[in-house]
Design goal:
The chain is an alpha+beta fold. Helix content is 30%, strand content 30%. A five-stranded antiparallel β-sheet has the order 4-3-2-1-5, with helices on one face. Strand 3 and strand 4 (90-95) form a beta hairpin.
């Protein structure tokens, strides 16, 4: 149901031409987030300037130390994946529609 809800949110935001594309992107997002929660994942995406970026990130507790500064109370859009970049030692994000490769 989470995958369908994210797909519908992305489709309603007109990020994709068809619901099938939005559903495919939602699955890609789900798989990436699962890998990030399990440990360290490598993935590649296209930055806004057109440059390819290889990222190594995680969302697993214990893989990084971070003191929360609070939240702004707004949830992230469905097409944004936030992750902790273990190389840069900082929080980063990427857009699902720009993901090109995911590896564990």
């Amino acid at each position: 149901s989470e995958i369908m809800a994210k797909a519908w949110e992305m489709f309603k935001a007109e990020l994709f031409q068809s619901f099938a594309e939005a559903l495919k992107a939602s699955w890609k997002r789900f798989k990436l987030v699962q890998l990030l929660k399990e440990g360290i994942a490598r993935f590649t995406f296209i930055k806004s300037n057109g440059e390819a970026r290889e990222a190594i990130g995680t969302l697993r507790d214990g893989n990084f130390q971070y003191q929360s500064k609070g939240t702004n109370g707004k949830p992230s859009p469905a097409n944004i994946v936030k992750y902790y970049d273990v190389v840069a030692d900082a929080w980063r994000s990427c857009r699902v529609e720009r993901l090109t490769h995911i590896a564990a």
